[in-house]
Every structure is written in C-alpha cells, then in structure tokens.
Amino acid sequence: MTVYRFQAHSIEGQHTEEPTINYSSTSTGVSSHKIVDGKETTTTSGVTRAYARSKEADVKIGGLSVAPHEAEDFMKQLEGEQEEAEAKAEDEDPLPSESFNQSTNLVLNDSDRGDLSNAINLAVKGELTEDKMIDAVSSLGFSEREGALEVANNLFGSLNKQFDEIADQEGMSPEDARNMLEAWSNTTESTKAVHDWINTGGADSGRLREAMREAWNAYGKSSNTDLVENLKSDGYEVQATSSGIVIKGNEFSDWTTWREARNVFKA
Asked: Which tens digits make up the pLDDT trace of 194-235?
C-alpha cells in the first residue's frame, strides 16, 4: 500500500460551499489513478496531484493545517502582516555606510601601497610622525612639503575620524582604543585588522572591531597597574580575579567584569 502526503498548492471556487483544493507532492512508483473517499488522485512520473470537494479536507499553508473556509482569511492575514513588515522596514532609516568618503578613497587608491602600508604600521605602533605621513603620499608627486603635509593630514584625519566612530560604537574612547591596540601583545593581528579595514575603503570594519574587543579584554588583566590606578582615581572600586579585574561604582551598582563593562559604554 502506498501512502501519499499531499500539499495544497491552490484553491479554486472559494466563494462556493465546496471549493476545489488542489494538492501536490512528490512520490515514487508507477503512474496510477485512484478515487478514494471522494478524493481523486493521479500520479505521473512520481508527481501526485489530488482534487477534492470536501469541507473537511484541510489546507496546508506554511506547514499549518487550515480549514478550507478559513484559508482565504488566513492568507489575507499573512499577506497583511507581510505588507506591514515591509512598510515598517521602508520607514526605518537605513544603516549608515561605513565606507570612507570619495576623496579619502581617491587618495588611498592613488598612493603607493608600500609607503601607505608602512605608515599604517607606524600608526598602529603610535610612531607615525609628520615626515612619515608625508612619505605615505609622496607617490602623488607633491613638489612642496606644505602641500604634501596638508593632504596627508586630511587623509589620516579622515581615517582617524571614522576610527573614532567605530571605537565609540564599541564602547571605548578613541584614545583608549588606540592605547589598547598598541599595548595588545598580538601586534600582528591588530596591524592586519587596520590594513583590512583600510583596504576595503572602510566598508568592512568587522576585523577591526574584533581586534578592539580582544585588545580591550587583554588590557583588563589584574597586573595592569596603570589601568587599576586610573579606574580608582575615577571613583571605581577594583578587585583582581583569576580572569581579570572586576569593577564597581559610578555606572555599575554591582561587581562587573572588565569584559562586560564595555557594553555599558557602547554608543
């Protein structure tokens, strides 16, 4: 005996007392034609179609069983909820793009990659000087130092501005984010994260954000006496644990791990 599982794919004559419900499902076996309890089924090449004129025959909509006389109202309800969700999505402000502005990307694209990469490495280490900034844009062919320095300042100023915004969103002050990345022992990863961010024109900040988070967590070790003293001077109570410091006071009414504290400061 073959058992068929039917899926309704359309309803005809819904305005009548006995609408026609069209079912379909896949099935293996030879072609066959059956009439059982008023339901006519025809199977050809493994595809079964069923036709029924019965008020008791249920309709499957999205895996839910619905009575035929309720199917139309149910579909209208689903369509209304979908339209409402789409309208709400249209009304919501789109997420702002993180990409660098056009002028920043033009300078990045026209600059020598080796000079630019060296400048970025120095920036991550906190060693980027004016001369090194000028070197980063030297391939643009400036004949005067003042012009090169102005473009370099505009370039790195733009990068710093968007870096600051990301740090703020991650619950860190820009200064803290830079200091923690510099202090993080995984300098290879922090440098690669900044490179990836810049190479995508700012469009992909995922790796940079993750590097900031890891640097933050590593910075909260209990042996970091500078951090502990700074927190205490800001009015926090600080205790050392095996996994790092915990703090209390100001925004934190209960003891909070350093890892969790960042979430309170997120933009």
From this structure: 999 999 999 999 999 999 999 999 999 999 999 999 999 999
Radius of gyration of the chain (CA): 32
The span from the CA of 37 to the CA of 236, in Å, is: 78
d(CA 45, CA 26): 9
Evaluated on CA atoms 28, 33, 39, 45, the torsion sign reads positive
User: Which is nearest to 37 in space by CA: 13, 56, 11, 60?
Assistant: 56
pLDDT digits (tens, 9 = 90+) for 1-10: 444 455 666 6
pTM (whole model) above 0.90: no
* Calpha distance 177→194 (Å, rounded): 12
Residue type, 58: D
* Share in percent of the chain as helix, strand, coil (round to 5): 50, 20, 30
First-to-last C-alpha distance (Å) of the chain: 64
Alpha helices in the chain (DSSP H): 68-91, 102-110, 113-125, 130-136, 145-169, 174-183, 187-199, 206-219, 225-233, 258-264
CA distance 55 to 6: 16
DSSP, collapsed to helix, strand or coil, labels residue 16 as coil
Closest alpha carbon to 231 in 215, 212, 214, 244: 244
Closest by CA to 132, choosing from 155, 154, 112, 149, is 149
Q: What residues form DSSP beta bridges with 257?
A: 246
